[in-house]
Design brief:
heterodimer; A: mainly alpha; 10 helices; B: mainly alpha; 0% strand
Chain lengths: 224, 225
C-alpha cells in the first residue's frame, strides 16, 4: 500500500500549495470567465443557438484553460529543484503522477463546477435537473485532461518555449475528450435531456488508456 | 553509391508502373470517372503514412526500453517520411473530394483523424527541435510519440461515432463495400510501390540521421578537448 500512502501524502502537499495561494484557481476561473463572455460575441446567443454551440464552446474554454493551468505542475518542481527530492521520497514514481493528476483533476473539476452555473445563467440554459449527470461527465472529462496533461507537462517542462509547447502537444491529443464530452453535454443540455452512455463509456476508456500508459511509462518521464 | 542508384531506379520504375496502372489498366469508375483514379495515389499514401507512423511508434518503444540511439534515428526518420506521405494524402484528398462531393473538405472520421494525426506528428518533430540534449530529446520525444500513437484509435473512434455524415469506408466498411477485382489489384500494386518509395526515403533519412549523431559526438569531443 506504499504507493497509495505516498500518493495521499503528495496529494496533500499539492492541495496545500495551491490552497495557500489559490493562484492557479483564481487565474483559471477569470480566464474562463473572459472566454465565456467573449464567446457571446461570436454567435447570436439565443436559447436554441446556445444549446447547440454552448457545450462545445464551454469544453473548448476548459481545454484551453487546462493547457495553461497544467503548466506549473512540473515547472514549479524544476524551478525549485524539488523534483529530485520528490523522486527520492517515493517508492514508485507513479505516486508522483497519481498525486499530481488527482490534484489537477480536483482543480479542474472545481473551476468547472463553479463556472457551470454562471454559464447556465449567461446563456439561459437550465442545468439543475441534470446536474448530477453533468458532474459525472465533467469528472470523466477532467480526469482525461488531467492525466494526459500531467504527463505532457512533465515533457514540456524540460523543453524550450515550454509555455507554447504544452498547448501544442496537449490540444491535438485531447481531440477525443473534446468530441465525446461535448456530445454528452449537448445531450444533457437538450430540451429533453438524455444521457449518451456511449460517450460516458468512451471517456472512461480514454481515461483508462492514458492512466495505464502513464503507469507504464511514467517513471521514464522523470528520469534525470 | 551503386546500391543507392539501383535502389532509386527500381523504386522509380515501380512508382511509374503504379501510375501507369492506375491511369490505363484500372477500369473507369462508373459515377466519378477519371477523378476516381487519384484514389490509387491518395489511399496508398494514406496506408504508407500509417506504416511510417507505426515504425516510429515501435522505435519509440524500443528506445524507451533499450536506449539505443539507432532506434531514435529510425523513429525520427519514420516520423518525417510518414509526414511526407501524410501531406500527400491530405493534399490529394481535397483534389478528389471537390469534383466527387462538390466540397473541398468535410469533417469526416478519416479526414479529420488524418489531419489530427498530421498535427500530432508535426508537434512531435517540433518538440525534437526544442530539446537540446540528444538523450533527453530522444527520450522525451519517444514518450510523446507513444502517447500520440495511442491516441490515434481514440481520435478515429470518437469522430467516427459522433461526427461522420459520410458513407462507409470502401475497404473493410461492411456489407456492400469493396472494389472491383482489377481495381483491387491496381490498388495493391500502388500500395506496394508507395511502400517501396517509403523504404527508400527511410533508408536515406536514417543514414543522414546516423551521420548527424556521429557528427554531434565528434563536435562534443572537440569542444571538451
Amino acid at each position: 500500500m506504499s504507493v497509495l500512502s505516498n500518493t495521499t501524502a503528495l496529494l496533500g502537499k499539492e492541495l496545500r500549495t495551491e490552497f495557500r495561494s489559490r493562484e492557479l484557481l483564481t487565474t483559471t476561473i477569470v480566464f474562463i470567465l473572459i472566454v465565456l463572455v467573449l464567446f457571446s460575441f461570436t454567435f447570436d446567443p439565443t436559447a436554441g443557438e446556445s444549446r447547440r454551440f454552448g457545450p462545445g464552446l464551454l469544453w473548448l474554454a476548459f481545454l484551453f484553460a487546462a493547457s495553461l493551468m497544467l503548466q506549473p505542475c512540473f515547472l514549479r518542481e524544476l524551478n525549485n529543484d524539488t523534483l529530485s527530492a520528490l523522486r527520492l521520497s517515493v517508492s514508485d514514481p507513479f505516486a508522483i503522477f497519481l498525486a499530481k493528476l488527482t490534484a489537477n483533476t480536483i482543480f479542474l473539476l472545481l473551476t468547472e463546477l463553479l463556472l457551470l452555473p454562471i454559464f447556465a445563467i449567461l446563456y439561459n440554459i437550465p442545468i439543475a435537473a441534470v446536474f448530477g449527470q453533468l458532474v459525472l461527465v465533467f469528472f470523466l472529462g477532467s480526469l482525461g485532461v488531467a492525466t494526459a496533461g500531467t504527463a505532457l507537462s512533465a515533457i514540456s517542462a524540460q523543453a524550450r518555449m515550454r509555455e507554447l509547447m504544452l498547448p501544442l502537444l496537449l490540444l491535438p491529443l485531447l481531440t477525443p475528450v473534446l468530441v465525446a464530452s461535448t456530445e454528452v453535454t449537448i445531450g444533457l443540455l437538450d430540451r429533453q435531456p438524455f444521457v449518451q452512455w456511449k460517450g460516458v463509456g468512451f471517456l472512461a476508456v480514454f481515461d483508462i488508456v492514458f492512466l495505464t500508459a502513464l503507469w507504464i511509462f511514467g517513471e521514464y518521464l522523470l528520469e534525470e | 553509391m551503386w546500391r543507392r542508384l539501383i535502389g532509386g531506379l527500381a523504386v522509380l520504375a515501380l512508382v511509374g508502373a503504379a501510375a501507369y496502372a492506375s491511369f490505363y489498366i484500372a477500369p473507369e469508375e462508373r459515377t466519378m470517372g477519371l477523378v476516381q483514379r487519384i484514389f490509387y495515389l491518395h489511399a496508398a499514401c494514406g496506408l504508407t503514412m500509417f506504416t511510417g507512423f507505426f515504425i516510429c511508434f515501435c522505435s519509440n518503444i524500443a528506445y524507451v526500453f533499450w536506449r539505443n540511439p539507432k532506434s531514435d534515428a529510425l523513429a525520427v526518420s519514420a516520423a518525417e517520411v510518414g509526414l511526407v506521405f501524410s501531406t500527400v494524402n491530405l493534399v490529394t484528398g481535397p483534389i478528389w473530394a471537390h469534383p466527387a462531393w462538390g466540397i473541398w473538405w468535410t469533417w469526416d472520421a478519416r479526414l479529420t483523424s488524418a489531419f489530427v494525426l498530421w498535427l500530432l506528428y508535426i508537434a512531435y518533430l517540433l518538440l525534437r527541435t526544442l530539446v537540446e540534449e540528444p538523450e533527453r530529446r530522444a527520450l522525451l520525444s519517444a514518450l510523446f510519440g507513444i502517447f500520440a500513437f495511442l491516441d490515434v484509435p481514440l481520435v478515429y473512434g470518437s469522430i467516427r461515432w459522433w461526427r461522420t455524415q459520410h458513407p462507409q469506408p470502401v475497404l473493410m466498411g461492411g456489407a456492400g463495400s469493396g472494389l472491383e477485382p482489377t481495381m483491387l489489384k491496381v490498388f495493391f500494386f500502388s500500395i506496394l510501390a508507395m511502400h517501396a518509395l517509403m523504404v527508400l526515403l527511410l533508408v536515406d533519412r536514417y543514414g543522414l540521421e546516423k551521420m548527424r549523431g556521429e557528427a554531434e559526438i565528434v563536435r562534443r569531443e572537440l569542444e571538451a578537448a
